[in-house]
Amino acid sequence: MVRQGLTPEKVVAAAADLADDIGFDRVTVSGLARQLGVRDASLYSHVRNLDDLRSRITLLAATELAALLGDAVAGRAGRDALGAFGAAYRGYALRHPGRYASTNRRLDPGDFAGSPGPQRILEITSAMFRSYGLADPDLTDAVRLVRSTFHGFTALEAAGGFGHPRDLDTSWDRAIDALDQLLRSWPVSRA
């Protein structure tokens, strides 16, 4: 990337690419400046500091992931929607490990006031779960279970943590089937 054309969007996109290459937690303003061939000070006209840069990577990733999830579940319900949502989630996590890692970072509500990504993910997730007839607090518990399963599976897969020769896609599909069955028979909270 050439020094003259830097914009906040280009800086964040380059930082997100760098996160995918070296890991989200290893991204620094100095490392990004080296990657872009500029001085650190040149980046501070586009981002306030490292925390701001990382928050912007998170927002970019959330926006990208929301678009994928929305396309995946459009017109689907139940097991079909859960499987499509899971496939989009897993694919994004494996293709963009640094960006994905950033989505597990908690943001202050003020950080994403102007970005639709995080809110859109919540809306898509809620819509997907609607066909299971869950309401809070059961809905929150179910979302946490599904997210934990998806995250755990993809984290282990990305790290090469599954040593058994059984096909990973088969195990993934079985996990989706099990989650679907569990969600359809979710025990109603007594709270």
UniProtKB/TrEMBL annotation:
Pfam families xrefs: TetR_C_33, TetR_N
Classification via SUPFAM superfamilies: Homeodomain-like, Tetracyclin repressor-like, C-terminal domain
Origin superkingdom: Bacteria
Boundaries of every HTH tetR-type domain copy: 5-65
Keyword annotations from UniProtKB, A to Z: DNA-binding, Transcription, Transcription regulation
GO molecular function: DNA-binding transcription factor activity; transcription cis-regulatory region binding
Keyword Transcription attached: yes
DNA-binding region (UniProt annotation): 28-47
InterPro entries on file: Homeodomain-like_sf, HTH-type_TetR-like_transc_reg, HTH_TetR, MT1864/Rv1816-like_C, Tet_transcr_reg_TetR-rel_C_sf
Stated name of the protein: Transcriptional regulator, TetR family
